[in-house]
Amino acid sequence: MVEVVAYGVVPDERPLLEAALADRHRVRCLDFFLDGDTASTAAGYEVVCSSVNDVLDATVLGALREGGTRMVVQRSTGYNNIDVDAARRIGIGVARVSSYSPYSVAEFAWALALAVDRRLVRATGRTREFDFRLTGLMGRDLHGRTVGVLGTGKIGTAFARIAHGFGMRSLGWDVTENPECRELGMEYVERDHLFAESDLVSLHVPLVPQTHHLVDAAALALMKRDAILVNTSRGGLIDARALVETLRDGRLDGVGLDVYEEEAGVFFLDKSLEVMTDDVLARLMTFRNVLITSHQAYFTRDAVGQIVDTTARNIDDYLAGRTGDDVLVPPGPSGRR
Known about the structure:
Keywords: NAD, Oxidoreductase. The chain has helices spanning 14-21, 58-66, 84-90, 102-117, 120-128, 154-166, 179-183, 191-197, 217-222, 240-248, 279-286, 301-320, and strands at 3-6, 26-29, 47-50, 71-74, 93-95, 146-150, 169-173, 187-188, 200-203, 228-231, 254-257, 290-292, 327-329.
């Protein structure tokens, strides 16, 4: 048994996390995020359970190490918020959840795409005020149109299967071609070709230096004026300022974003009584054809259940001295063996 402190735990997630660790470890669930101001609260906890919006830079990791932390287990697949090189230098182990239900994110990406295409948010807002006009609500069939999928791993493949069910032509872009997507009829093309030909573009690649601002001003300029752009992966894949300028020019039929490159300190929090100081996010919110959600694509009972189960297993592996596929940085020599 080990002492665990978990950060950024939302109310719907807490019972699942506590149940996964019950009778095995003592866990303290906190609703605030881990950063330089809150790192002191981890003092005395051998294991820190982090969320994707926590900040684990070299300074925070150093504070954790001083406080007795030896292992960080992150409840997400992405880990761009963790300085893994610093963790390796100071001897803190790091593990993540390498995979969970791909359908949660793929289905949500389609929910965004359909809501944008068929103006569902505008329509429901009207009908709540008993305005039943159809003016400005015309969408278009997706059947027979072209979808571009950037990233054809598990989530991208699940997304492509749904596109196949809609009867769409699929274009793919990735460092390696996926035979499953090929079987669905996907044609792999160069990135610029995908942007230029697609009626709907959906992003499913990880955020690494090579993909930062993958959708920049040049890529946006290539897209059809009436294309739809969806991002349920990582906010840093899109140059948000360039996206604002594109929308101001009247280009793109709609945008669905579940992530935003400066979402840390905003998403998962109630900011309704505060002044929004992020001018780019505030501007994006003003466009009627932009739908923004708060990084909830993964948030299904199935996916979160898998995430907390894997997190519990990562803690068990740490205690047993095992190094599985989820481990990014093995614990240092002063950690458990």
